[in-house]
């Protein structure tokens, strides 16, 4: 496999199942159905932490496979809420916002002044 082949293959993968199958990783469909975006985001996060990508195509393929396997395994004994992949899971308290009624009324034509 050449670098161009690997890059082309990677650009054509679109689902979590595509990635897992491409890298030959056994998976449970039910686990992937629930966590597909979380697995792919974790995989992306792991790739972003790699300081230097290997020059050889086979080494790059192996690194990608290992990181995807690790991302998948993160959700085998856990769940999205525990793993907190996305920012929304890092929010502790609901946030409230207030908008004065006068600001809203100012946007409506012919609205009485408040």
Number of domains: 1
Give the uncertain stretches in residue-range form. none
The percent of residues in helical segments reads: 55-70%
Give the percentage of residues in beta strands: under 5%
Largest sheet: none
Helical element count?
6
The global form is elongated
Tell me the series of helices and strands, N- to C-terminal.
HHHHHH
Radius of gyration of CA atoms, rounded to a whole number: 22 Å
SSE-based structural type: mainly alpha
Number of strands: 0
Average of pLDDT: 85
What's the N-to-C terminus distance?
70 Å
Which properties best describe this structure?
single chain; 114 residues; mainly alpha; 55% helix
Give the topology, please.
Blueprint: H1 3-12, H2 16-22, H3 29-48, H4 57-73, H5 80-83, H6 101-105
Could you walk me through the main structural features you see in this protein, from its secondary elements to its overall organization?
With 114 residues, this protein is mostly helical. The chain has one domain (3-86). The chain is 55% helix and 0% strand. It has helices at 3-12, 16-22, 29-48, 57-73, 80-83, 101-105. Helix 3 (29-48) crosses helix 4 (57-73). It starts with a helix and ends in a 9-residue tail after the last helix. Homotrimer; associates with NifD. It holds the Pfam family NifW. May protect the nitrogenase Fe-Mo protein from oxidative damage.
